[in-house]
Amino acid sequence: MMALRAITSVFTITEFELRKVYHDMSQVFIRALQPVLWLVIFGEVFSKVRVLPTTGYSYLQFLTPGVLAQSVVFMAIFLGITLVWERDLGLLHKLLSAPIPRSSIIIGKAFAAGARSILQAIVVFILALIMRIELTIDVVSVLGVLFIIILSGMCFSSLSIFLASLFKTRERMMGIGQAITMPLFFASSAIYPIDLMPDWLKIIARVNPLSYIVDALRALLVTGDFSRLPVDLGVLVLAVIVMVGLATLAFRRIIE
After folding, report:
1. What pTM does this model have?
2. Closest CA to 17 of 151, 111, 101, 89
3. Tens digits of per-residue pLDDT, 144-195?
4. What share of the chain is helix, strand, coil (3-state, %, to 5)?
5. Closest listed residue to residue 220, CA positions, set 238, 233, 210, 209
6. 217: containing domain
7. DSSP-derived secondary structure for 145-170
8. Where are the alpha helices (DSSP H) in 170-222?
């Protein structure tokens, strides 16, 4: 009975969060600008330079999964700002006073962040189609990409909730969000192969969850090499569990 109530609570929180997107679609279009800039400007320029080794496929093909992953991270990592805003309005106090487990609140908000990230994937796919970037689009790849995107959104939105419980103000969360997203992006395999990195950066890239997310997306959309996919998914699932656990433990501190 308690398990059923927890599951129901998760879907209730998820629906509530997704309604916010429905009533304010402007944020979707604003956040769509970032993948456009990365693919149209950065991707086109570096594909002409031809300095990065991408044997068997173009640099734009190599870059597209990285841009998709970065878009998901960028959307999810700023959830903490919304959480602080809800606290200031008193909405969070009401939510915490409801007879539902804190873990259901975290999982519901994290799952909604993952579902919202699907909109970013649609933008990237449409852009890739317009730019004639060849990607593997079939039932398996699309379902796999959606699964990875949802898990990625859950991972980094839970991290954002954890950080919001520590920093507690919108100004601090804006700063920490910007301080995290770019290092995560550049210290991963999103825009260049890990083999090209200096040794110290390779170590960081190999413990960076974003590297495993990008590798999984690249396997599904570009290379078709699934040999590392179980490892990539295992690391991602472990990261989700750890981040949801940390966010759940720290969540009440946001109103203290």
Report:
1. 0.86
2. 111
3. 999 999 999 889 988 988 888 888 777 787 788 778 888 888 888 888 888 8
4. 80, 0, 20
5. 233
6. 2-47+56-255
7. HHHHHHHHHHHHHHHHHHHHHHH-SH
8. 170-186, 199-207, 209-218
